[in-house]
Design goal:
Serine Threonine Protein Phosphatase 5, Tetratricopeptide repeat; mainly alpha; 9 helices; elongated; about 180 residues
Length: about 180
C-alpha cells in the first residue's frame, strides 16, 4: 500500500502544481500509515516497559534494544532517552538474573564505551551504581567507592560550586561517617 501511495505521490508531484491539495493530502496519509506500521522509539520503549512489568524479560530486552538502536540512529539523539533506556535494560538484567549484580555489571560495561569515558554521563552512571550498591546490595564500601568516582569526574568537569558536586560530596561524607561508626 505504501509503495503504491508513494508511486501515486510521485505522479502527482510531476503532474500537479506543488501546492495542490491532493499532494499534501496524500503526503499526510502516507505519513499516517508509516506512523502506524513503524513504531517510534517511544512506543518501542513503552512496549519494553509493558513486557518488563509482565515479567517477559527476554522480550523486554528486545524492545529496549530496538528503542536504543533507533534513538542512536536518530540525527537528534537525546542522551537522556539513551540513558533511560540503558537504565531500564540494567533493571531487566537484575530481574531476569534474580540479582542486582548483573545490573551493576551492565552499567559498568557502559562506562567503558567511547562516548561515556570520563564524561558527566559516566558520573551519572557511577552515581546510579552507588545507589544500587547502597540500597539493593547493601555494600557500603562499593557504594562509597562509586560515589567518590562520581565526585572525581564531576569535580574535574564542573565549576567547584556546582550543586551536582555538593550533592555527591554530601553523599560521600555521609557514607564515610556511617562507615566510621560501623567500625
Amino acid at each position: 500500500m505504501i509503495k503504491y501511495s508513494n508511486l501515486k505521490l510521485e505522479i502527482f508531484k510531476k503532474t500537479l502544481p506543488p501546492d495542490h491539495f491532493d499532494i499534501q493530502n496524500l503526503e499526510e496519509r502516507i505519513q499516517f500509515v508509516k506512523d502506524i506500521l513503524e513504531p517510534s522509539v517511544k512506543s518501542l520503549r513503552e512496549l519494553g516497559n509493558e513486557t518488563f512489568y509482565n515479567s517477559n524479560f527476554d522480550q523486554a530486552l528486545i524492545y529496549y534494544q530496538q528503542a536504543l538502536d533507533e534513538e542512536l540512529k536518530s540525527s537528534n539523539s537525546d542522551y537522556s532517552n539513551v540513558f533511560g533506556i540503558h537504565f531500564e535494560i540494567a533493571q531487566v538484567h537484575a530481574k531476569k538474573d534474580g540479582n542486582h549484580t548483573s545490573e551493576v555489571n551492565y552499567l559498568q560495561k557502559l562506562i567503558g564505551t567511547q562516548y561515556l569515558d570520563d564524561t558527566l554521563h559516566s558520573a551519572v552512571i557511577y552515581s546510579k551504581i552507588a545507589e544500587i550498591y547502597g540500597c539493593k546490595l547493601k555494600n557500603s564500601e562499593e557504594e562509597l567507592k562509586n560515589y567518590e568516582k562520581c565526585l572525581e569526574i564531576r569535580t574535574k568537569l564542573l565549576l567547584i560550586d556546582d550543586r551536582l558536586i555538593d550533592e555527591i560530596e554530601r553523599s560521600v561524607k555521609t557514607m564515610e561517617e556511617w562507615l566510621a561508626e560501623k567500625e
